[in-house]
Specification:
Layout: E1 2-6, H1 11-21, E2 25-28, H2 32-38, E3 44-47, H3 51-56, E4 62-64, H4 76-80, E5 84-86, H5 93-108, H6 111-118, H7 144-147, E6 156-160, H8 164-175, E7 179-183, H9 203-209, E8 212-215, H10 229-232, E9 240-243, H11 252-260, E10 266-269, E11 289-291, H12 302-318
Parallel strand pairs: 1-2, 1-3, 3-4, 4-5, 6-7, 6-8, 8-9, 9-10, 10-11
């Protein structure tokens, strides 16, 4: 059996792959031409597969994508090919879930507002700009300032796409006592967290009910431009849209207009379409928008997990077992 790697791996990772693949022959192709020659008799491939490479393959049975998302990896010939495809899902769940809860906490406690005020030297509580704690009067009445700060256990959070990342977001939100909602095309529950995950036909119900609407879905033909103006208008006027999925799921022009017309309360965006978001885009200047530059998955742990997923799937292939992260090519996940 033969495994082809292209682009080539560094020496350290290559040696680890060779150990996991034993007794398979491993070709660390340094050029596209070498990959073209080697893939003719390859049983397995890791790296960036192209239509030209796939066309030369005579007995390819397994392809491992180096990424979790597949919108930039799949092409029609690969979808139709009988080979098994696996991806790198499951690496980012806890890291991305932490980022989502960072967005939620910022909006709930107005941290994004106070950060801007700090640069101006302003002591100005949201809800009552003149209020100063006097340490005399007890908090016996509800003040405007109280109403302007959310108690998370009074809030609901809905997740679109309850895969490994979406499920972890729900677990984090459950720890804050939030009411949970989820929609997914396949998954029907998150044991111990959410006993009923709705089908995607109830997306509008989720959007109407949730205080925080979190997009954790992959970009597929079904989810591309899913969030257009009509769906955004179904959100609560105070609702917050959070996107850590893919930028192409949200129409940014429609989101911008919805925010301008106060049709929702705000947005937390780690992904945009296009990326980078142009410096003159109006979203940058909106006080109720938080933008992070596609860093929700940034962590010291990811490289280690990526390596272990690759090595484990190689070991499974050698043993004649399916990969742990096999995907449905037609569904794109």
């Amino acid at each position: 059996m033969k495994l082809v790697l292209f682009p080539p791996l560094d020496e350290g990772r290559f040696l680890q792959v060779c150990s996991a693949a034993d007794p398979m022959q491993v070709v660390n192709a340094s050029t596209f031409e070498q990959a073209l020659m080697a893939i003719e008799e390859a049983d397995a491939f890791y790296g960036k597969l192209t239509p030209e490479l796939l066309n030369r393959a005579r007995r390819l049975r397994w392809v491992q994508s180096p990424t979790a998302s597949l919108e930039h990896y799949l092409f029609p010939e690969l979808i139709e090919h009988p080979c098994v495809l696996s991806n790198m899902r499951g690496l980012f769940s806890d890291v991305v879930a932490d980022h989502v809860m960072g967005f939620v906490l910022c909006f709930a406690r107005n941290l994004h507002v106070y950060l801007r005020q700090q640069s101006q030297g302003r002591w100005s509580p949201v809800g009552d700009q003149s209020y100063v704690v006097d340490f005399v009067n007890a908090p016996g009445t509800v003040l405007p300032m109280d109403r302007a700060h959310q108690h998370l256990s009074d809030c609901s959070l809905g997740v679109i796409g309850v895969g490994s990342i979406g499920a972890e977001i729900l677990r984090r939100a459950a720890a804050f006592g939030m009411k949970l909602i989820g929609v997914d095309p396949v998954r029907r529950q998150v044991p111990g967290v959410l006993e009923e995950v709705w089908p995607t036909s109830r997306l509008t119900d989720l959007v109407r009910e949730a205080d925080y609407v979190v997009i954790a879905a992959p970009l597929t033909p079904e989810t591309r431009q899913l969030f257009r103006r009509p769906l955004l208008q179904q959100m609560k006027k105070s609702g917050i849209l959070i996107n850590i999925g893919r930028g192409g799921i949200v129409d940014l022009q429609d989101l911008t207009e919805a925010l301008r017309h106060h049709e929702l309360g705000g947005a937390g965006l780690d992904v945009c379409d296009p990326e980078p978001l142009p410096a003159d885009h109006p979203l940058w200047q909106m006080p109720n928008v938080i933008i992070t530059p596609h860093v929700a998955a940034a962590s010291l742990r990811i490289a280690e997990r990526h390596r272990e997923t690759l090595l484990e799937n190689i070991r499974r292939f050698v043993r004649g077992e399916p990969p742990a992260t096999q995907v449905d090519k037609r569904a794109w996940f």
